[in-house]
Amino acid sequence: MIGVAQTARVALSAAFDYVLKRGAFGKPLMEQAVVRNRLARCGSELESLSVWVDQLVYTMYKAKDHGAPPELGGLLALAKARAGIVLDECARCAVLLFGGNGYTRTGQGELMEKLYREVPAARIPGGSEDVMFDLAIRQLVKSYRNNARAMGKEKL
User: In what residue span(s) does the Acyl-CoA dehydrogenase/oxidase C-terminal domain sit (predicted)?
Assistant: First the structure.
C-alpha cells in the first residue's frame, strides 16, 4: 500500500514537472486550465490516500500495545483496494499529459510508459478489489451492529 502510493506520487510528480516544461499552443501546458484540473483531481486523490495510509500505519503501530480495533482488517482492505485505484488514476493522468511521449520506452516518456505498464502488477496481487470492498463492508456492518447493541439499540 505504501509502495503503491509512492509509485503514484512518482508518476504525478513526473507529469507535473513535464507540463511545466512542455509547450503547446504557444505556452506551457501548465497554463492550460484542463491540465491544472487533471493534476488537481489526481493530487487530491493521492493526498487523501497518503493521509489514510499514515493513519492506518499509526493505528497498526498502536495496536501492538493496545490491541487492534475490530474494523482494522476491513479498513486495510479498503485502503489496499483504493491504493491500486489511485495508482491507476495517477499513472493514466501522467501518460495522458505526456501525450505520445508517454508511450515511448525511451526518452522523456520512458518512466511513464514503465509505470503505466506495471499498474496491473500493483493492483492484481493485492487481491480482487470487489472482494476486498465486500470484506470491508461486511466487517464494518458487523462492527456497527455490535456497537449498536452495546448502546441498547437491538434492532440494528
Answer: 4-140
